[in-house]
Design a protein that fits this description.
The structure is a single chain. This protein has about 325 residues and is of the alpha+beta class. The chain is built from 3 helices and 16 strands. The protein has helices spanning about 1-35, 60-100, 140-145; strands at about 110-120, 165-170, 185-190, 195, 200-205, 205-210, 220-225, 230-235, 240-245, 255, 265-270, 275-280, 285-290, 295-300, 305-315, 320-325. It has a 5-stranded mixed sheet with strand order 5-11-10-7-8, with no helix packed on it. Strands 12-2-14-15 form a 4-stranded antiparallel sheet, with no helix packed on it. A 4-stranded mixed sheet has the order 4-3-6-9, with no helix packed on it. The protein starts with a helix and ends in a 6-residue tail after the last strand.
């Protein structure tokens, strides 16, 4: 009897040991699945004696312990997504940074500019009679001066109503402006009893050479306001020339005449700076190299006199051509 009792007790111990071993294996498996050591809640609970009515261990605690692990995995997934998004944003920012690095440096502000445009006549230009007729038997030096009619060039208007021989200039040089005096001479010739060119731009101290391509004698008579006037004879076909120089700037263009042939006239603008122009046959002009700033230009024509005394002009780094329009009545006074 005692032996049976001992055998029964040994059998129960074996069964309990096997069940404990099974419980321990399940706990280790659960630990491996949920990540051992991630939190205190995931540690396996000590094995307890199973209910004698059940041959399988109670896994409800194990199931409840797995929930934090699922939340932890979700948090890890979210963190991974946010990291990926951040990496994506950083990747997007790189081109912007590169664009800034590759951007061209700002260009320095311009220090000089130009003033250009056209002078236009509003209205129908008058028909001007010729100054010297080739068929005039009483014409002075007809053999030379009567080779062709001498037109009146005091108002030349082009096909697009542009007015030639209009002077535009600054009365005085910009403050602080300095420049060496040009050494290339301005040539004033006489061809067919006409001064060539009809208009000239001259700087103070710049040499002027007066020549003659005609086989007759001429004289050159200047009418300056501030310079010493000259009245000199020019020999026929004098290509060596006679020097002429203006020492002071004039406020307006001055007239140059030939007293022997009264119709001959030319106009010289003399300034102590280069900021002047005279319109071409299309009425166009351009003055370059002006320091940036605000100016007042004068506009002058031989028939109208001063068309503008204080024409306001702002010179910037860019040039926007202007159109200056004047009524025909201003040229027929």
């Amino acid at each position: 009897m005692l032996q049976n009792t001992r055998s029964s007790q040994s059998l129960r111990r074996v069964i309990c040991a096997r069940r404990l071993t099974a419980m321990t294996a399940l706990s280790v498996l659960a630990c491996l699945m949920t990540g051992c050591g991630d939190s205190a809640e995931t540690k396996p609970a000590p094995a307890t004696a199973p209910d004698t009515d059940s041959s399988a261990p109670d896994t409800s605690d194990t199931a409840s312990r797995q929930e934090p692990s699922e939340n932890s995995n979700a948090a890890a997934t979210t963190e991974s997504s946010e990291t990926a998004a951040t990496d994506s944003r950083v990747g997007t920012d790189i081109p912007e940074s590169n664009a800034k690095d590759n951007a061209k440096p700002a260009q320095p502000a311009a220090t000089t500019g130009s003033f250009s445009g056209r002078v236009i006549l509003k209205g129908t230009p008058p028909d001007l009679p010729v100054l010297a007729r080739a068929d005039d038997e009483n014409l002075k030096d007809k053999e030379v001066c009567g080779m062709a009619d001498v037109p009146d060039d005091s108002l030349l208007v082009g096909a697009d109503s542009g007015i030639a021989s209009v002077f535009l200039y600054l009365r005085r040089a910009p403050k602080g402006f300095k420049q060496e005096t040009p050494t290339e001479p301005v040539v004033l010739d006489q061809k067919g009893c006409v001064f060539t060119p009809h208009t000239a731009l001259i700087q103070t101290g710049q040499p002027v050479m007066v020549k003659s391509s005609d086989a007759v004698q001429h004289n050159v008579h200047t009418f300056p306001a501030r310079n010493q006037g000259v009245n000199i004879l020019i020999k026929p076909n004098d290509q060596a020339g006679i020097p002429l120089e203006y020492a002071r700037a004039e406020s307006e263009p001055i007239q140059v005449k030939c007293d022997i042939h009264a119709w001959m006239a030319s106009y010289h603008l003399v300034l102590d700076h280069p900021f002047m122009a005279v319109t071409d046959e299309a009425g166009a002009f351009r003055i370059e190299g002006l320091p940036v700033g605000d100016y007042e230009f004068r506009v002058w024509h031989e028939r109208a006199g001063l068309l503008e005394r204080e024409l306001a002009v702002s010179v910037t780094g860019s040039d926007t051509p202007v159109e200056l329009t004047y009524a025909v009545d201003q040229f027929t006074k």
